[in-house]
Fold this sequence. Notes:
Layout: H1 2-19, E1 49-53, E2 57-59, E3 70-71, E4 74-75, E5 84-91, E6 106-110, E7 120-130, E8 139-141, E9 144-149, E10 164-166, E11 177-184, E12 191-196, E13 205-207, E14 215-226, H2 229-236, E15 248-251, E16 258-273, E17 279-293, E18 300-308, E19 313-320
Antiparallel strand pairs: 1-6, 2-5, 3-4, 5-14, 6-12, 7-11, 7-14, 8-13, 9-10, 9-12, 15-16, 16-17, 16-18, 18-19
Amino acid sequence: MKRFSIILCLFCCFVNVSKSQNLIPNGSFEDTISCPEVGNVTIIDAQSWNNNAWSPDYFNPCSNTNSVPYNFAGYQYPADGLSYSGIIAYTTFFSNPQWTTNYREYIGTFLTTSLSVGSKYFFSLKVCLAVQPDLIMNSASNKMGARFSIGNPGLLTHDNYSDICFNTIITDSINWTSLKGSFIADSIYNYITIGNFYDNANTQIINVISDVDYSAYYYIDDLRLSLDSIYVGAITNLNNSEYNYNNIHMSPNPTFDVLNINTDRDFEKIEILSISGKILLSEYVKNKSYQLQLHNLEEGIYFVKVTYINKQSVTKKLVKQN
């Protein structure tokens, strides 16, 4: 009887883990085929990901041109891990027929397993608007979404249809915005494509820094697809939590040798990053307070990234003096 109970317990755990599995491989773009550089900066540099229209971008700290947090589109730390993607979701700039009107960029990947007909799947992703006046990236749009297919559909064009569509216009260019939706599979789909599948006439926009609308460009990170709504919801609701994760105190700052970190909720990891995003120090600590020794750190400006036990993170600027 005892042996049967153990086997039953193991089986339940296995079912639980399988149900929570993310069907999107490399959903945070951490696994890299090659470092994105000038002339080769598209999403195909990220393991498992494909370019399904034009030239969606890939940002990784290893790059000199498409780095993290600094890159041509602006300044942003990842929502999860070290890397993220970027796509044009709306534009009026490329009106030349050679580029086609209603230009869009799409990224796609094969799922780890095919969808089961009749099953309900839950999907989430995080997006952040990139605003860059010099590159005419000055608008925000809605209609970000996902589309499923059997096999890689190749280069797509907008046809005003998506299986999951978010009608909210995302204007936040500082914080990551979590989007969550669901989909009942009507076929054994094994591929997902991300982007705005609606033309300009069916897309709403807001001009955030100009009276003229040109382009809406979004960073994309932390994509998840699962049968488990709690698994997806626990991730996507972080930004909507009533708890203020910015309630963290660091002192002294500027500092000469030590940094005291205090908060009212347990965190699990502290990282010191260079201004270019390189991790210089990483320590795992499950506590509400911790003292970092910074004697070996050169004078300059750094970033302190504190990650909580639920994977939500906060990044603060640190000034080190000698």
